[in-house]
Amino acid sequence: MSAVEDVILPDIENAALRKRLTLYLGGQASWFVSLGIQFVLFPYLVANVLEESAAKVGIAQMSLMVPSLLFMLLGGATADQSDVRRILIRVHILAAIPPLLLAIVFIFGDLSYSALIIYALAMGTLGAFAMPARDSALTRVAGNNIQKTVAMAMGTQMGSQLVGMLVAALAATTGTPALLIVQMIVMLGGGYASWKLAPLPPTNLATKDSRLKQILDGIAIARASPVVFTVIGMMFAVGLFYVGSFLVILPLMARDIFGGSVWELSLINICFWGGTIVSNMALIRVGHIHHRGRVMMGSLTSGLIILFLMSFPIPFVVLCLYCFVWGLGAGTTMTMGRTIVQIAAPETHRARVLALYQLGFSGGAPVGALMMGLLVGQLGIYHALWVPTVLMLIILISLRMFSPIWAYHEKAA
Question: What is the pTM of this model?
């Protein structure tokens, strides 16, 4: 990691910033290794172990993300008014509890759909507070080049998720409880890395406004920037049509079309998130990109093409290839969008604006998961994919014609 850090960190500050960045990325890696395990294990338990219907798979996946709709903006306001190091320590410790309890339930043979829903709601709620705190801390542990730092953080996130998915693929041999215990231990490791960080005090101590007023203030700041507000809308569409399809279609394809188990589902996820890692490594090497909005539009178009191609019967190896290409576009979209918002948001409101950005992404996903679950039940897996394909095409054409994102241009740092 040190070679990359030498590029990102300014020479006059690299000793202190290097330590903070390493600890920050360590905590982030812990969180996303755990999420990588969850990403594979949770839908496997719903679709394969409990053998629930497509609609129930969609509802279960939705339950992981619904708390974002309720608490993400509150999490952003809390991060702007609190020591984010303390928030990160607490959420890591608390997030170690649900996998432990689920392991106990599984050992005693009491696994049920309701137990998985409770687990999903608990983890989703903690994530709604963890994400704004982590995003707010990023600019304070980084150097001068935000785009490279965001790409590095995103690469760590995707790489850690990939590790978690590889670990989850061992479920067939190690058993589910053992993996849940690993998830708990990894999460506690992130709490320790966050504890070793130097304090990251509040960035907005001046205001005595209520949490609701602070949330509304953050929305107003985001709304005042047409580009930021457009990016937030774009990420809502991504959550609604791309993430919703990903969370429901792929587990059902693995189970119903290819007759697969946890290994096939893991491989699909590994290909997708491997693509995101490759794209972020490429962005680190490329350096500053002036027309980030155009790059986002291009990567979203690639996702649209993949959805279209997946609506036809294909061999499993081709599906894996499609997922890798889809991941290339997804990694680019997330890095470009987050970079635009990180730069545009004022420091006093950054956590709230980033929380709104994340809410756009996470808020669309549960609605999309439910929608795709219901569509698959009515139309079947292949025909259901036509709905997000057509709607996303309309959105991309509208963005090109009427939004400022295509003309957005950022000068070099």
Answer: 0.70
